[in-house]
């Protein structure tokens, strides 16, 4: 299936199921941090692979990326991107200020991976039960570097098929009075072949 | 100093002094530089993958290591570069997520090998490289001086230069 041949109603359907899936992920994050987490309605876009770093504020922006491969009936990748400051805030909320050092240590890295795991699992569970598909996240991997470098590793796989990426992107933000806002980007990057499976499961969306 | 010319993912460009070519955030992507130090003519490519699949025609040849090198070479020769004077440098080819993919060998490593092999096949000496590791790199190439600056957030910065007298 070619990304550039998707109809408006197919994109709407993707937006809707992602909205539900992200809702579950946001609830999980809220329970984890004890904060209220707000969610923006997901944007479903078909973009040039080369334009993705711009969505994150430029290729040199320092971010923390957690990626998981989606396995099962439908395949793809999930990529969570936190701006560096938000990653620190998140760690402060979860581990306490004393535990957050300039350079991320083993505990910080595995905490962020675990956050990625929880968000991705909540999202995939919601999607899976909605669509009656089995989708399992792989173990999470983490990179902390320039946005361009972090996303290229994930996009390279897609780029073997074409030059476009279907991204379902949302921003979530946890706000507590007196605390810095925690922001993150959640990307769903389905493999082109798996989109067919997803639309088949949604049923009759042309 | 002139405006820096930005090379995006899957793009390449050639230029002449006093132009400055720059590409941001190379992860497992490979940045490939060719230079004729006497003419101050050079090229920079930001490639994603080693080579197109056999029989595949590609809309974007700058995406691949093999075709980007060949195209830059053709363009540089057309602009007056002398083939025996051309030398190359490569940067990037990192493994950003340890354990990513099922292959024992990551895409960064394959990109790097494809570049070494293609350059060797064309008889273009590879004068320096800073490849591999687990960090991203930004590469800035000043065609007037042959100076290449490699910046990274996590791996330290490197300054290297092409020989102008080759």
Gist of the model:
Chain A is α+β, with helices and mostly antiparallel strands. Chain A is 45% helix and 29% strand.
Secondary-structure-based class of chain B equals alpha+beta
Report helical residue fraction of chain A. 40-55%
The quaternary structure here is heterodimer
As for the number of domains of chain A, it is 1
Question: What ranges of chain A have pLDDT less than 50 throughout 5 or more consecutive residues?
Answer: none
Number of helices of chain B: 2
The helix/strand order of chain B is: EEEEEHEHEEEE
Our measurement of the CA-to-CA distance between the termini of chain A, rounded to an integer number of angstroms, reads 13 Å
- CATH C-level name of chain A: Alpha Beta
**If interface size is counted as residues with C-beta under 8 Å from the partner's C-beta, which chains form the largest one?**
A-B, 30 and 33 residues
Helical content of chain B stands at 10-25%
Mean pLDDT of chain A: 84
CATH homologous superfamily title of chain A:
CheC-like
Let me know the number of strands of chain A: 8
Mean pLDDT of chain B: 91
What's the CATH architecture name of chain B?
2-Layer Sandwich
What is the count of β-strands of chain B? 10
Description:
The complex is a heterodimer of chains A (206) and B (166). Chain A has helices spanning 8-33, 52-55, 84-95, 106-131, 147-159, 192-202, and strands spanning 36-39, 43-48, 62-72, 76-83, 135-137, 141-146, 164-175, 182-190. Chain A has 206 residues and is α+β, with helices and mostly antiparallel strands. Chain A has six helices and eight strands, in the order H-E-E-H-E-E-H-H-E-E-H-E-E-H. The two termini of chain A are 13 Å apart. By secondary structure, chain B is of the alpha+beta class. A five-stranded mixed beta sheet of chain B has the order 1-3-8-9-10, with no helix packed on it. In chain B, helix 2 (107-122) links the parallel strand 6 and strand 7. The mean pLDDT of chain B is 91. Classes of the chains: A alpha+beta (206), B alpha+beta (166). The A-B interface holds A 49-50, 53, 58-60, 62, 65, 67, 139, 141-157, 159-160, 163 and B 8-11, 24-29, 48-49, 53, 59-60, 63, 94-101, 107, 134-138, 152-154.
């Amino acid at each position: 299936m070619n990304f550039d041949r998707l109809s408006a109603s197919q994109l709407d359907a993707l937006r809707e199921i992602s909205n539900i899936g992200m809702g579950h992920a946001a609830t999980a994050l809220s329970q984890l941090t004890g904060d209220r987490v707000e969610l923006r309605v997901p944007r479903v876009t078909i973009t040039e692979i080369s334009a993705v770093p711009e969505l994150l504020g430029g290729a040199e922006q320092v971010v923390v990326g957690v990626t998981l491969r989606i396995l099962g009936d439908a395949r793809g990748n999930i990529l969570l991107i936190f701006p560096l400051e938000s990653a620190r805030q998140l760690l402060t909320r979860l581990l306490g200020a004393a535990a957050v050092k300039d350079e991320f240590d083993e505990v910080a890295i595995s905490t962020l991976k675990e956050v990625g795991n929880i968000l991705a699992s909540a999202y995939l569970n919601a999607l899976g039960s909605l669509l009656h598909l089995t989708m399992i996240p792989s173990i999470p991997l983490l990179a902390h570097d320039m946005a361009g470098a972090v996303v290229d590793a994930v996009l390279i796989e897609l780029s073997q098929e074409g030059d476009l990426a279907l991204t379902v992107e949302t921003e979530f933000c946890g706000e507590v009075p007196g605390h810095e806002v925690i922001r993150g980007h959640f990307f769903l990057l389905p493999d082109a072949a798996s989109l067919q499976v997803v639309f088949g499961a949604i049923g009759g969306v042309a | 100093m002139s405006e820096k010319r930005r090379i995006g993912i899957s793009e390449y460009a050639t230029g002449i002094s006093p132009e400055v070519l720059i590409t941001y955030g190379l992860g497992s992507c490979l940045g490939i530089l060719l230079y004729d130090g006497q003419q101050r003519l050079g090229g920079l490519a930001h490639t994603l993958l080693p080579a197109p699949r056999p029989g595949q025609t590609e809309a974007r040849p700058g995406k691949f290591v093999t075709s980007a090198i060949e195209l830059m070479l053709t363009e540089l020769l057309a602009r007056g570069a002398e083939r025996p004077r051309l030398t190359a440098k490569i940067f990037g080819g990192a493994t950003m997520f340890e354990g990513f993919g099922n292959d024992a060998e990551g895409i960064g490593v394959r990109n790097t090998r494809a570049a070494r092999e293609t350059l060797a096949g064309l008889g273009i000496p590879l004068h320096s490289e800073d490849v591999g590791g687990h960090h991203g790199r930004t590469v800035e190439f000043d065609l007037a001086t042959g100076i290449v600056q490699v910046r990274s957030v996590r791996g330290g910065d490197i300054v290297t230069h092409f020989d102008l007298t080759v």
